[in-house]
Structure formats: structure tokens, C-alpha cells
Amino acid sequence: MESTKLLGIYSNGMVLQRNKKIIIEGYESASSSVTVTLAGQSVTAPVVEGRFKAEFEPMDVVFDTELKVEGTDTITLKDVCIGDVYLLAGQSNMELPVERTLELNREEVEAKDYPYVRQYLLTPDLEIPNVGEESICTLPESDWISAAGEKKNAFSAIGFYAAKRIFEEKNVPIGLIASAQGGSTIEAWMCEEDLYASGISEDEIAPLRGKGSLKKYVERWQQLTIDWRAEANDNDFDIEEGIKDAKPVTLPGIVVKDFSGVVWFIKEFDYDGACEGECYLRLGDLIDADITYINGIEVGRTEYQYPPRMYHFDGSILNNGKNTLMTRLMVEQEFGGFVEGHPYYLETPAGKIDIMGEWKMVTEKKMPKFNSIPMAQMLPATLYYASILTIKNIGISQIWWYQGESNAGDPDGLTMVNTELARSILEQGSANPYSYDQKMIRTFKKMREFFGEVPLILVKMADYINPLTFESEVPEGWRKIQELQERAPEYIANAKVVNAPAPDPVYELHPQNKSGIGADIAKASIKLNK
Known about the structure:
With 530 residues, this protein is an alpha+beta fold. The protein is 23% helix and 32% strand.
């Protein structure tokens, strides 16, 4: 067992913030002090209750140095740089990886590597301490990755597209702390004092407190999904027999209505000649989870609604002549199908095959509507402890924020909630977008207590219509969040707003066009730091 250990964010490839005090933190179990050396400068730090904190005076830009910690053990980190560090926070549109944007931006991504653009993925260890205790969250132990080769695909897309432009302009190492969490509410990023001021009570937070409480909550959330999907499987169902009873449907469209459970969609198509090499199935956007087969061979699966279906497969599975495409779709919330406006086609070396139009549909098993509970990152204070307090001593240059989708809902969305605690929390959060500005004020005031008066760049949400609402206009709550985001510079100092362009179709919650947002963030970032 190691006697000397650094906090997880201090790892190979790390970027530290230039021109600010640099703090190096860790644990030491057997020595009264440790010596830390960075870029040729050394600091001896005392060990207090098993922890040490070494502080260095501000330094200018440094490429490729070492960080050495000498205690009972010696730790040496390689490829450490000093440059500009950015905190990426919010929810899924900030979290969305480069890989999900390659359909639009493959040429841009593959054109050049950026070894001095680095990312640390802060996957949260969710814990809320008991009153009076210090935070019990820990930082993941993982190296920073560089924007080179295949590793680029794991970067936050907005982060990558912004950071590469900033690097080209400033030629300093760029570090991204990717802390965004899909589905997170703004309440999850807030401290308890600010939550109380926003109307959430201690009684509502108390059940979430204590080591292991949120872990049990997450396990329960996962188990609900596992159990429902297991029950939805009809092991006696034979799709070949089922096809005989299949009824024609026209796709794309939300063709499953007032039904939860499993349905199959079947499409026959012709292909002439033998096929060699990789083929590509673009199956648009499906609601909810799917497993897709061609000629009985699985070519791809997706476990939830939002990712676009982009399935690559070996063309040798195609027949000369008749072929069968089948999608097994799990419908959780009584409506499902193929969302309109998305691309649906099969691409082969010989060209594209249009797969829209007439399909057949057959039921495998009908189920009760799936009743889940909110994800842990929707609950109050979770990400404050896991993703803000854990890095409070890390110097950063700016905060980049893209959030609001989970706070723009309406009371109808609460029908999926089956616990009074979660319902109460969401009633004050996603059902009330009108207080979003006050919550932003408190959220960023608290962040700046830790990180200093750093600039804030906020992305105004793109338009979106949930296809399951069958509405033709962006809902009122969504528009209210957009309005409050646009006005943020009026009530948050040193803030800049960039607009997410309207997606096509408007039913796309996670549009791929992140390069344009990155370009706007880079432009705003350079201007704010001048």
C-alpha cells in the first residue's frame, strides 16, 4: 500500500494554471513532511492529519516538465505543463464527446493533433457528507489525455473545438477539466446554503447524506432499469414466427402509442452483388433502447434514447438479393418509434440505400410503463461536493457552462417520479424555470469563492421540442431558461453568452454542430482574458 499519494487530478499530462498560485495536494501516512518539486522549484510541506498541501508562487508557461513528490515514497509525474485551465461544467451537451460529432466534423478532427491540449475527465464519486463533516468525495485517479490520435474522440466536443482554436491563437498548453454530467440540474451544482435560500429544505437533503447513501440510490436506479428490461424479455418469442403477424407501418414516425414494452421493426431491402469492406447504417434517432440486426447478425445497440444510431458493420453479411433489417425496440414511456427529421439510410461501397418508408411492426411483449427515479446527478448538492469542492484548490482560467435542459421541464414530466423526495426536489427545480437566474447567481458566486473572479462563458440552449409531446412550438419553460441565459451578463459580472445554433431537426436534443459553439467560445474566451 502506498504511503505517499497525490489527489487523483495530479497525474501524468496534467496542465496547471499559469500566473496563479499553484497548490499540490495529497496524502502521506508515515512522514511528517514531503518535498514537492515542480519545474525546478522545490517546496517542503508539512503533513497534517495525513494530508499535505504544497504551495508554489505563480509561474509562467512551461511545456513538458516533471512534478516530483518525495515523502515515504517518491512519485514522479511526466509531461506536466503550465498554461491555461478551463472548467467545463453543466450537462450532456457539454459532456458530449467528439466521437458523437464525427458525422459532421471528421475532416476537422482528423486534420491535426494537439498534444498540448489535455483533458482530465472528472467522473464523480457522489457522496453528500453528514452535517459538520468535510466532503467525503474523491477524485478519479486517471491520467490527463492529449488531443492526439484516437484519444481526441473522448474529449468533450465543445471543449476540444474551443481549446484547439485557443491553442492556435495563444500557443500555451490548454487543460480542460471535463466535469459536466448528463441530466444534471443546476440544483446539483449548488451548496446547501444556497439550496436552502432557493426553497429546498434540509429534510429533503437529509436522506441523501452519509457515506454510501447515494451509492445505494444509484444502485436502486440501475436495478429498476435492469429489472424492467429483464421482465420485458419474452424468451419464448420467435421473431421469425412473429413476422407472420407483423403489420405495415410508415417510418420515420412515433408509431408506438399507448404501449410500453418491446416491439420489432422489420425492413426488407435488395442488394445486388457481393459486398466487401465496411458498411454503415444510419438509423436516425430511436425512442428508446434498441438492438439492430441485419440478416440475423447484430450490427449495433444503444441503451437509451438520445444517441444517434451510427452502426458500422462488415459488408460481407449482406446477401446478393434479399436482405432483412430488424430493430428490436424497448419503449419505456408509452410512446416510441423513429424520430422524424433524422437521416435513415444504409451506406455500402456501391452507394446508399434509402430505408425510409414502409416497414412492418410486431409486438414481443407489453409491459407497464417504466417508472424510474431521477438520476443521482439531478439531486441537490451532489455535484457541488463531487465536482466543485473536490477541485477547489485547482487554479483555473475560466468556467464554461452549458446547462438548463433539466431545469426547463414542466409538471407533466413529474409523472415518472415515484418517490416523494424526488418529486419535491424536481417540483422546485425542473418544474420552476422562472427562478433559474437566481440559482445561476448563487451557483457562480460560490464557484468564484473557490476559483477567484474568473470569467464565465455560458452557452444559451438551442431550441428543442420533445418529439413525444407532439407539439410544434418550443415550450414555455424552455424559452424562459433561454431568456434568462441570454440576460446573464446583466446579473453576473464578467460573463459572456454564446448561442447554440438551432438544430435541424428541432427534435434533436444533442445536435452534432459543436464546432461552431467551440469557435464562439474560443473567440469569447480570448477576448475576456485580454
